[in-house]
Amino acid sequence: MQLVNPPLIKREQIQQKVSQLAKEICRNIEVENLHVIVILKGAVFFASDLLREFPPIASLDFIKVESYQGCSSSGVIKIYDSNLPDVKGKHVLLIEDILDTGLTTQTIFEKLKEQNPKSIYLCVLLEKKKHRREITLSANYVGFHIEDHFVVGYGMDYNGKFRNLPDIYALDLE
Ligand code: IMP
Ligand code: MG
Question: How far is the CA of 33 from the centre of ligand 2 (A)?
Fold first, then answer.
């Protein structure tokens, strides 16, 4: 198992995209009233870069979930926080690292929606181009569309490793 060189997405491309996304979001949403929820752990680098380009937001929360073992979805979504943030009547922005099957994010999205927020937007750094069955969720803001690689770096991991790398790499699983 090794990183494929060169990186799939270099740090300069990430920075540029994050700034572009921040501008787009701030143009469309009233950020002062925005309650941001970051899905841990993978989205933490993306969210901290993105949010530093925003004017003051209303609040910041985290949800910790796990669905992956190695490089495939276990299909079982573990949400660690049984008390999800209170979003009733609020404008919410959910930030996630990557949509693969979309199952994890859709599960959280639906649970938050049950509380009747005023609005709820989804921003993801990466979206895999694969066909998704049974998942109706689509992101309002997407950084990059990628092929069906398993990727690591910039928050994303393989069994806990590689999260701290500043660039995004495909992982060769041979
Ligand atoms: P999904 O439920 O299949 O959409 O997977 C979502 C979660 O699995 C993401 O939030 C990531 O944490 C993780 N994941 C999916 N694909 C990758 C990948 O290529 N690299 C690292 N983590 C991934
Ligand atoms: Mg994640």
Answer: 25
* DSSP code for 33: G
Ligand 1 pocket by Cβ (under 6 Å):
42, 67-68, 73, 96-105, 150-152, 156-157
Give pLDDT tens digits for 74-103. Answer: 666 677 656 789 999 999 999 999 999 888
Residue bearing the CA closest to ligand 1, atom 13: 68
**Per-residue pLDDT, 144:** 98
Task: Please tell me the predicted confidence (pLDDT) of residue 165.
Answer: 98
Q: Where do the DSSP E strands lie in 10-162?
A: 34-40, 59-69, 72-79, 91-99, 119-128, 141-146, 151-152
Are residues 115 and 86 in contact, defined by beta-carbon separation less than 8 angstroms? yes
pLDDT at 29: 95
Q: Whose CA is nearest to atom 8 of ligand 1?
A: 68
CA distance 69 to 162: 15
**Higher-confidence position of 153 and 80:** 153
What domains are defined for the chain? 2-172 (3.40.50.2020)
